[in-house]
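If you are new to this repository, start here. Below is one unmodified record pulled from the training split, so you can see the exact layout before writing a loader.
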Amino acid sequence: MTEADALRAQLEPYPGFSVIDSADGLPIIVIEHAGLRASITPQGAQLLEFQPAGQPPLLWCSAQARYQPGKAVRGGIPLCWPWFGPHPGDATQPAHGFARVLPWQLAQVEVAADSVSVAFVLRDSAVCRAIWPHAFELSLCYRLGRELQLDFSVTNRGTTPAGMSYALHSYFPVSDIADTAVDGLDGVSYIDQLDAMARKLQHGAVRFADEVDRMYVGAGGDYLIHDQAGGRRIHLQAHGCASAVVWNPWIDKARRLADMGDDEYRQMLCVECGNVADDTLMLAPGASHHARLAISGAAG
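And here is the target side for that same chain:
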């Protein structure tokens, strides 16, 4: 039985759920319920799309995205864990960790009149321990309704402390990045990854006229994306996440990305919540960390 067939059997009791195979072999769960639409791949437990009933899509995915086993998908909400960016001590290890490219287990499905909840778990294995020598358990639960609520937890199942960083690498659609602003970071210090990791201070809203790649530390967790050209706002509320990463590749970087169209940078923006850099976590044996992210859209 293939992974997709096993998922179909597991989801058979739930109307509105189906499973498709991508052209490159990645199984994708499609959800159509009470007017909402979503898709999730068990690889990385990655939410690829979410469109609430009567609203435009809340997440962005590249038209050039590759749906291949073992490869991160460009869009939706990948989970970067147990490290964000390059490995802190070994450049040969995969960027952004391994959680986003491993298959997770579908653990629970709940269907209500106007929402659905889907939960996944990932536990350590020999493959993981060869890269990161700690026993762990991760869970990701999505509640999809009028808004998106994501609950993430990690537990150290080992006998030694485990250091880790992570980001919920959310991709959002905008009408024109040059006419987009992000509120909620005024007065917050950030590390500029495009300027030799220089420490700087944000003044006012974040705006875009070139490539931006910043790690904001000690941030508040309440952010508002103003898609001014599209007359829309996207609101993020994060709990348990002390960091925010803001990224747009702009022209040159977009051209270097094989899984992104040359001009797609104009219609996307990443605002990622998590704990990175100064906010890196250290979990004692048996300890857990929990984070919640709520995302909603509105006209204005």
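Two things worth knowing about this chain: Helices lie at 3-11, 126-131, 250-256. The mean pLDDT is 96.
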